[in-house]
User: What shape does this take?
Amino acid sequence: MGRGLEHRDSQSPWLPPELRPQDFFDVSLMAELRQLKKGITSFAVGARHDLIYPFEERLAEGTVEVEVLGQGSLAERIRCARAGIAAFYTPVGPGTDVAKGKEVRDFNGVPHVLETALYADFALVRAWKADRYGNLVYRGPRTFNETMAGAARVTIAEVDEVVPLGELKPDQIHTAGVYVQRVVVRPATPVTSWETPQ
Amino acid sequence: MNAGEPERLHPSVMAMIVTRDFQDGYIVNLGVGLPLECANAMPPGREILLHSELGLLGFGPVISDHTKADPYVTMVGNLPVEALPGMVFMSHDESFAMIRGKHLDIAVLGGLQVDVEGNLANTQFDGKPAGNLGGAPDLAYGAKRTVVMMRHTTNEGAPKIVNRCTLPLTAPRCVTRVVTDVGVFDIEGGRVILREYAPGWTPEAIQQITEPPLAVASDVREVSLV
Assistant: This one.
């Protein structure tokens, strides 16, 4: 799916929020193609000094913006977008740079910072199977995939296969199709995460 | 390591020091870097559930032979891990609800600096254009206990246990224990208490590579794995 972005002309507003190593292929591609304006992420750079990712290069050049916040706050901001909640107070962040310029308020004597919902135009998620309603099931930890599905105007799910309606059982479906606007079938055997080109 | 100084503890030994405190039934999260060593140093005979921010609870040791790994079962650091019976997968928002909701007993985090107030800095690496927070701010707040596992000094030999963190904070007042490659320290009431020292080390030698004055516990001893 990341490869498909190569052919887009428009400037993407931000990168998918979680830079897991297996996603670097995709995110790096967008950074390399200068299709990123801003990254809202909890992992802005690689930890290694001998490996500089394209997004880091763009940051060093000053050609992209970055907003770094804790992963829990990022996940909740996205979940709130899906759930129609405008903002929330979290106890995580006060006393650090993340809270600068944001409202901080005490609840039960504990400072909380106000974080706002993070809406997207497009959410690209990776799932295992879909049916024609767009119902999704995932394999393994569902990470930001389940969190993001429905937090955007258009959610595009990449899946291994589309199965007939009814094959995914009601008790098993992780993401209801109402959150999903497009399904793309992954063409080839997935590259295992530790073999992802970096 | 400076010339002539005693040998420092191997990360696998540091991991054993950290994990000996894991009690039966504990829910534990391991940060990237040194703390991941703990996944392979679980105390025998105790059932400990490992949590990973990716959305994984109750996984087993890291699998080094990738041909035997399930590519879908990975933890933070993108490492394949063993699937154990009773393991649960979830989303990020659920995973962090579990963290913030204080359902985890211990978070083991890496550190760049820890100060006498228990403030933790582990965000900003030298020479990088931005920092990485990851799940650390949530873990440091939400876990009932935050243990930092780090080398005692930087590559340049500067102390990492300091009077006041000079690097951007990940989370304020969260660290209660620090395990380094020279000793075990508790942070209590604005003091750093030396509990154990590595073989060959003395409290005096450790003080020389530590910025704040150390309080030496009355029962200070050589590191013991029991």
Notes: The CA atoms of residues 149 and 179 of chain B lie 5 Å apart. Chain B has four helices and 15 strands. The mean pLDDT of chain B is 93. Chain B has one domain: 11-222.
